[in-house]
Recover the amino acids of this structure.
């Protein structure tokens, strides 16, 4: 009986509950994103991505040089 009253009250005010849940999620999300651990993790991820990009550009330059060399040999 008490459970039904609680559920009826929750359903009646569902938009307020959704709003309150959104506010709580925003506050918790902000705290998580500002934490030192998240900052270090994202910094490491970006550093790794930049290293992969540099390696890919280096390999692309090598492939381009090899291709140009082959074209020059065929002429």
């Amino acid at each position: 009986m008490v459970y039904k009253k609680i559920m009826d009250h929750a359903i009646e005010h569902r938009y307020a509950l959704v709003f309150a849940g959104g506010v709580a999620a925003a506050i918790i999300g902000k705290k998580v994103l500002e934490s030192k651990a998240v900052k270090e993790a994202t910094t490491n991820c970006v550093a790794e991505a930049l290293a992969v990009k540099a390696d890919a550009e280096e390999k692309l330059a090598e492939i381009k040089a090899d291709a140009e060399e082959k074209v020059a040999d065929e002429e």
Summary: The mean pLDDT is 91. The two ends are 90 Å apart (CA to CA).
